[in-house]
Amino acid sequence: MSFPHAHLLGIEPLAPGDITAILDLAEEYVALNRSAAKHRDVLAGLTQINMFFEASTRTQASFELAGKRLGADVMNMAMQASSLKKGETLIDTALTLNAMHPDLLVVRHPHSGAVDLLAQKVRCAVLNAGDGRHEHPTQALLDALTIRRAKGRLHRLSIAICGDIAHSRVARSNILLLGKMENRVRLVGPPTLMPAGIAEFGVEVFDDMKAGLEGVDVVMMLRLQRERMDGGFIPSEREYYHRYGLDAEKLAYAKEDAIVMHPGPMNRGVEIDGEIADDINRSVIQDQVEMGVAVRMAAMTLLAEGLRARRAA
User: Angle at CA 89, nearest 5°, toward 85 and 90?
Assistant: First the structure.
């Protein structure tokens, strides 16, 4: 199963066949992760370094577990207390990493483009675990796998992405991926949380939840990212929930078999009603967490195969 990319920095460079290759391999890893023996030696002898310049629970734990289940030597670097705090540049960090000879580098960074810069300077495969407002490719891939398993396909679906679009790298990566796979994408949220020029992405934009959710197959809620807001984007959390929080009344406008998603962490009573989030018949939020480990295992497997091939050439 060939994968023609040295890194996984975003969804934008991927062809539909690349996306399908990752998802198909991830399906195998879903089965492995549900078995008694969850270990393979695919990454045996390779070193994986996780560098999270932003705090993360789900993504970092998921990448760490994925690497260990594939047999890699996994190291987590505490970047919040690192040399960068003492003035070291990202380039100096890359040079230091090169001296350690890692094979896989997983990076989350608060600035868009920082992961791409690192990828240009290090001699290993780099996976983007989220950079600023730019992209979060493995989140979009795990969302895609969750949708494909729930709906039986990943094309010609109507999908509503709702909430804080402007500050969300998850939204950007999902818009790109779902568009490549021929889906109809709607963005729903207040005008203050819509990025300028978003209609150029080939999406429909709504500022009314009921109109935006009318007849959709998938409802993807987003976290309200207050840490990225530097002004009054919403009047209050109570008002936001009233207009844009997902509850039973708003969900009734979607198809009866529509699934509900959220990348986490959730703000219950702000973005989503707790009963909807926990509804085993509609919510696939816990499935998303499970698919995350499998997708990251698949991505690292394909990148490691390419890395070994290039080193052997």
Answer: 105
